TrEMBL record:
InterPro entries the UniProt entry points to: C5-MTase, C5_DNA_meth_AS, C5_MeTfrase, SAM-dependent_MTases_sf
EC number: 2.1.1.37
Protein name (database record): Cytosine-specific methyltransferase
Encoding gene per record: dcm
Organism superkingdom: Bacteria
A GO MF term: DNA (cytosine-5-)-methyltransferase activity
PROSITE patterns in the record: C5_MTASE_1, SAM_MT_C5
Lineage of producing organism: Bacteria, Pseudomonadati, Pseudomonadota, Gammaproteobacteria, Pseudomonadales
Entry keyword Transferase: yes
Keyword Ion transport: no
Alphabetical keyword list: Methyltransferase, Restriction system, S-adenosyl-L-methionine, Transferase
Swiss-Prot/TrEMBL catalytic activity: a 2'-deoxycytidine in DNA + S-adenosyl-L-methionine = a 5-methyl-2'-deoxycytidine in DNA + S-adenosyl-L-homocysteine + H(+)
Catalytic residues (UniProt): 71
Record family assignment: Belongs to the class I-like SAM-binding methyltransferase superfamily. C5-methyltransferase family.
Amino acid sequence: MKAIELFAGIGGFRVACDSLGIETVWANDISPTAAKVYQKRFGEEHFHFGDISNFLDQVPDHDLLTGGFPCQPFSSAGRKLGLEDARGSLFEKIVHILERKKPKYFVLENVKRLLSMDSGKHFATILDALSEIGYLVEWRLLNSVNFGLPQHRERVVIIGHRDHTPKSYLCTSSDISELTPHQASVASNTENWKSIEDHGSKFHTWGLALNGKFFHAKIEGFSDAARPVKLKDVLEERPNDNFYFTENTLERIKTSEEVNRFYNGVEILYNQKGGARMGYSVFGIEGVAPTLTCTTSRHYERYKIGNEFRRLTPVEYARIQGFPDNHCASVKLYDQYPLYGNAVPPALVTWAIKRATSTSYTTFQSASAQMELV
């Protein structure tokens, strides 16, 4: 099987494809630092640096299109501008390639807020575009913590198949059992689906779309979850002293409120504003890390480790995201943080690609029948 990787960054999808024996025959990114890392890790032969608009005619035939299309327009950690932002139009390049090359599958990744951005209008636009070009589209909200990574990182995975029979690749029969018999019956027949134009203000955590119509539901269980990993399990034993801010942090704590509770699995010890607000927080290591981002201020967040306080290291960022320790070692330390913060976790998309390209799936007729027997 051959794959291409759009908006490749440091190669999260590439790591996933390599682990599954899928050959990546073409990749692209516009970031100089990401390009340097990608080419150092995977070679220069199939990588094309620059604006993807300049390479559309050079994209080769492939079986699988992958891409974590730019998240800033949709992320609550960014500017919240949505598809009106010029970067939003990059999604159109994905549609262009899918229409032209017609691969069997695609796997895309984006931020959770995509489901509700501008009262659901942006995700509706994406679903409509993908479902009108010959694909059965399925999406699901996933979290890195379920893939053996010590990070609360919720991401929407969107997959596409050219087989239009309603079915789920991203849910096991156990997951689908959360549907009521009526919901399973509706899901099994596209004639009963709603027009995407009639979407509500927010899309649910799982759903399907085809030919401008969709069905969605809240599915919370994840039966494929891996063993939980805590932040303390991936820490370096004793990093360079430059990462420590013990005296400074002790002074900050004097004007902070003690929190000492977990929020989304993240242990919050102190906060200058109190409560669970992430700004100016001091974290513990008994839970997981908060979502890593490309925002510079977030890279200086403090963690209490033993009796000392320090920031996380790039190696720890790599481990939290599921990359090899020195994946970004070819660029400056300062540049490694945003590269990891923007990256797609390989373990998460490995699961998604494996499910999307599998011959195994869950049908709603069988799920409905099983639930009727319970």
